[in-house]
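Notebook entry, structure prediction.
Reason for the run: the old model in the group folder had no record of what sequence produced it. Starting over properly, with the input documented here first.
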Amino acid sequence: MALKDLPFKLKGFRLKRLPLGEVNKKKKKKREVRICKPSWMTPISHGYHVVESTQSIRVGSDESEADSVVVQREQFDQLEVWFFGISDAKIGDGVNNYIQSHFMDKKPKEIRRRSKETMKKAYMGVRGKMRETIQKTEERAKAGSVSVMVINGDKLVIGNIGEYKAVVCKNGVARYMNPQHKHFSSPKPHWSGRFLSVRMLSCHSGNNTMQSKSSEVLVGVERVDSDTEFVILASTGIWEAMKPQEAVNLTRHLEDPQEAAECLAKEAITRMSKTNISCLIIRFD
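New structure, fully documented this time:
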């Protein structure tokens, strides 16, 4: 089957960014940022790709429901902060706006101290919006948002809600927050992370026996070390088509994060994923 026959189309979209971000507004084929930094900073590059399901375009409207991708970099004296995020259109820019107004203007010491707390509060606000605006069970199950703060290249603060998730690749192994086991899951039992999980009650509709997936706010902190290779942020359309370790295996050999993001999206299309496909890859060079 040719790709053109699949219920997806590439969607040119606007890279939404917060003020002072250092991403060019113009659409580029290669969306990757490399910045010369002091020796104490870990070099970071990134790439992203979005494919929008034609089923998500509202009939009779020019406005689509494509996911939004946000990239922002700030530097405060000896502190560098990257903020990466992918959000479903139903959720909007709630997380991004909260981070902008409650975090990016703080003093360096306060940023380090409050990063996890700020991420948690941002996603608690998004959780409330989901409960108020998304009434249908199936729509709530597909909606979500995932964000990562990279602080000085040595600390990751990860937050997500719904089926939008982040996976950290360490020495070829996929590690991710698992709400069932209350830690970052990986085949290596000695590795662990700290996170907060807030569960939303599942919803039932009449006599329908289908139960929606519980939407949870997960916030975790992980250190970047010599084994940390890259981080994958991706939407439901990726994770309904493949497992985290499959995604890592598929992209690990690709040094260009833009190429890796495109490869991941194309694989999800090949596997007939039915929802919006968005992925952002952060590589530690």
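Summary: Confidence is low (pLDDT under 50) at residues 1-36, 57-61, 188-214.
The old model has been moved to the deprecated folder.
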